[in-house]
Structure formats: structure tokens, C-alpha cells
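in:
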């Protein structure tokens, strides 16, 4: 049903569709009308064909036709935008591997980070001057918290899973800053097993994030659950390597066109840093990841220099050339690879394809579990078949787990049980054993 716009006639004539504004080539999405109906707040990316450009918070004035960027000097993404009714906008932003509640006023446009702490605020609702948010951590599934709009103080108001937590031991979550090969500091979550004893040695698991541009935050999931991994006796190492949000746009952008470069060195910096601890068993280390994390596993399999005893790759990119002709997100690989493989004048693209994981398969020497879904059109399951074939032909212990009714992720509860049994069974067989 068409909306009748006041004053500036934002909607135009009846039945008319207009671009507001029309000079921006990137994604514009999730418009939210102001309470008085005179303005529209929306999220916008400046660059076309890049789903991981900075998500700016813009406001379009229906009366004047002017558009203002309220986060010009705020080097983080704006998400879940809400008007408060008093001329201020609240939103969620990923900041240093967490998700925080922020706000900005239309008058000065300066964004303020309202909350603090190691948590993910995933959604919030405002009414009557109160804010209630959905919050989770690496050690807690989503619960409700009230947030004081004056000072950002958070008060827990639900205990939905308390009976479960009372019967389950959680491991300590450490916040570790690791120096990278180019002299920067990288935040790495380290999750210790329950009842951790620093006088003992524990097997170590490196987690490789997918995306590639998605933050390793304080998320909770029944698939990639760090506490579940730690509960099996593993020290989990989860780096926020190059190419992840929440550390500024420069850190995020670096990975595009450099899949085989700095972010791979970041992974090795993180695992080497933890492996030096007296309680980390450097002779029992594994590596796992999905999507871009699966690509990372394939790539590391050819250059890890005996660090790892086993790999697990879920729906990973194995062969860049065939991936280019198979994926339903061609625009994505054009941005992140640098273009198609047939253009010899495109140096970025040529470097990407020259470093495709399949070109290092001759160096593979480590057992690998490969998981895929037949309905995956983003990274088609044939990529996993290629990798499995390469490992088996080379005589490397390999196992293929293929779900005929799953796509890029495993969502169905029964399949998730199978996934976890395969995941931990593989690690226990090749990593945990002395």
C-alpha cells in the first residue's frame, strides 16, 4: 500500500517509484521513517559490487531532498537503526569483536558508543524511554537485558537458560592481543577447557572464520560453538584476522585481492603465539573452518609446515578457476578475486588465481575431513568433491560428509547432530590422541 508522504512528498505522485537519492551506486537498504514522517534513515554502502563496504547511516530529508551521512567520522558499520522520537538515532555497531549499542543526534552527527563489555547486542527495542536488547556471549545463548539510555548500563532481566547453565561447566574466555607479521595488534579469543589446569598440556584447535568479511565476535551458535569445542578438551584459538569488521574499514578491506596473503599470516601468528604457552601441546593441533574458513583450511594444508595434525574444511573454496564459473555470487568473486581468470592484464586477479589452494595440493600431507551440502550454490559442493578427490588420490587420509538436503550451512537439527559427531570424531582420532 503506497505511503502518503507529508510536506516534501517523499513518495512522489501516486504510483510513482523514485530512487532516493539516485546518485549512489552501492547498496542502500533498510529504510526507517522518522516519527514525524519527514525523514528516512537508511544504511548505505558507497561502492557498488562490494557487500562488505562500510555500512553508513544516512538520513534523507523529504522536505529539502538533502542526504546527510551521520557516521562519516565513525569507522564502523551501522546496523539495526531505530529512531527514538527525540531526534536521535540508535543503532548497533561491531566494535573490536563485539556488538555494541550506539546513538547519534541529527544536530551534530557525532556517533556515541553507549555500551561497553565483551558481548554481542543482536537486536533491541525502544519504548517509553526504555531499551530492551537481545544479548549473547561466547558462554551464553541469547538473554534479555535492559539498557539505560543515560549511561549504557546493562541489567539482565531474563534467565531463560539458567537451569541448563547450572548443570554445565563453561571454559574461561581470554581476550588476547597478538602481534602480526606487519607489526599490528590482532584480537584473538582463546577459550580454555572447563576445569583448566595450567600444569597440563591440551590439544589446540585453530578456528578459521568464514565470510571472509564477518566478525569473530561474542556469538553463540549450536554449530560453531567455541564452548562446545573447549568442552571436548581443546584450547580454541579464534583470531580476528585481516578482513574482518569491527577494527576499521582499512583492516576489513585489506583481504580483498589478497586471500593468500596477510590474513593467512595472521592465522599463523595467532596459533604460533598460543602454541608457545606451556599448557598448549604444539604436537597436537588441528585447524577447522567453513566457507572462506574452508578455503583457509585448504590453503593452510599446503603451507602449514607440519603445524597441524588434522584439518576440517566445510563448504570451502578449493579451485578458484572452477569456482568462478560455478558460484551464484559472481559479483562477489569479481570484487574479492579482482576479476575473471582469463584477463592477463589484471595483476590482482592473476595473483588470486595463481594462489588457488588446488595448486598446492601436491604439498598436502595431513588428514582432512571435508563437509558439504548438495544445495550449496554459493560455493558449490563440487569444490568439496575436487578437494576430496585430490586428497584420496594422493593417499592422504580423507573423509567426505555430504548432506543432500543442506546448502551452505547445516541448519536441520538431526543433521547438526551428525555434523558434530563427525567433527569431533575426526579431531579425536587425529589430534587428541597422544
Amino acid at each position: 500500500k503506497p505511503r502518503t508522504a507529508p510536506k516534501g512528498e517523499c513518495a512522489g505522485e501516486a504510483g510513482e517509484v523514485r530512487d532516493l537519492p539516485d546518485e549512489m551506486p552501492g547498496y542502500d537498504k533498510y529504510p526507517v521513517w522518522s516519527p514525524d514522517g519527514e525523514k528516512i534513515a537508511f544504511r548505505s554502502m558507497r561502492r557498488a559490487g562490494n557487500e562488505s563496504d562500510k555500512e553508513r547511516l544516512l538520513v534523507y530529508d523529504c522536505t529539502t531532498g538533502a542526504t546527510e551521512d551521520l557516521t562519516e567520522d565513525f569507522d564502523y558499520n551501522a546496523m539495526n537503526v531505530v529512531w527514538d522520537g527525540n531526534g536521535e538515532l540508535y543503532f548497533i555497531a561491531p566494535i573490536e569483536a563485539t556488538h555494541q549499542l550506539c546513538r547519534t543526534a541529527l544536530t551534530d552527527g557525532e556517533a556515541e558508543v553507549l555500551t561497553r563489555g565483551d558481548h554481542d547486542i543482536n537486536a533491541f527495542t525502544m519504548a517509553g524511554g526504555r531499551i530492551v536488547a537481545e544479548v549473547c556471549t561466547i558462554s551464553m545463548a541469547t538473554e534479555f537485558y535492559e539498557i539505560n539510555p543515560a549511561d549504557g548500563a546493562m541489567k539482565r532481566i531474563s534467565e531463560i537458560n539458567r537451569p541448563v547453565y547450572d548443570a554445565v561447566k563453561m571454559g574461561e574466555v581470554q581476550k588476547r592481543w597478538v602481534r602480526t607479521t606487519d607489526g599490528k595488534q590482532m584480537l584473538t579469543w582463546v577459550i580454555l577447557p572447563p576445569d583448566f589446569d595450567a600444569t597440563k598440556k591440551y590439544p589446540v584447535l585453530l578456528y578459521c572464520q568464514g565470510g571472509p568479511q564477518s566478525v569473530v565476535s561474542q556469538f553463540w551458535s549450536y554449530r560453531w560453538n567455541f564452548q562446545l569445542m573447549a568442552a571436548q578438551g581443546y584450547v580454541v584459538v579464534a583470531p580476528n584476522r585481516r578482513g574482518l569488521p569491527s577494527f576499521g574499514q582499512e583492516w576489513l578491506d585489506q583481504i580483498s585481492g589478497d586471500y593468500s596473503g596477510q590474513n593467512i599470516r595472521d592465522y599463523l601468528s595467532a596459533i604460533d603465539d598460543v602454541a608457545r604457552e606451556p599448557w598448549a601441546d604444539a604436537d597436537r593441533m588441528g585447524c577447522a573452518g567453513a566457507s572462506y574458513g574452508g578455503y583457509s583450511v585448504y590453503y593452510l594444508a599446503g603451507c602449514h609446515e607440519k603445524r597441524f595434525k588434522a584439518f576440517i574444511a566445510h563448504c570451502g573454496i578449493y579451485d578458484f578457476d572452477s569456482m568462478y564459473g560455478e558460484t551464484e555470487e559472481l559479483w562477489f568473486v569479481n570484487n574479492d578475486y579482482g576479476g575473471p581468470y582469463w584477463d592477463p592484464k589484471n595483476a590482482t586477479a592473476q595473483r588470486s588465481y595463481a594462489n588457488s589452494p588446488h595448486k598446492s595440493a601436491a604439498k598436502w600431507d595431513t588428514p582432512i575431513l571435508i563437509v558439504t551440502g548438495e544445495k550449496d550454490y554459493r560455493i558449490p559442493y563440487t569444490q568439496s568433491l575436487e578437494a576430496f578427490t585430490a586428497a584420496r588420490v594422493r593417499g592422504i587420509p580423507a573423509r567426505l560428509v555430504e548432506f543432500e538436503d543442506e546448502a551452505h550451512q547445516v541448519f536441520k537439527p538431526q543433521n547438526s547432530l551428525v555434523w558434530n559427531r563427525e567433527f569431533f570424531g575426526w579431531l579425536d582420532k587425529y589430534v587428541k590422541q597422544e
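note: The chain has two domains: 28-162, 169-432.
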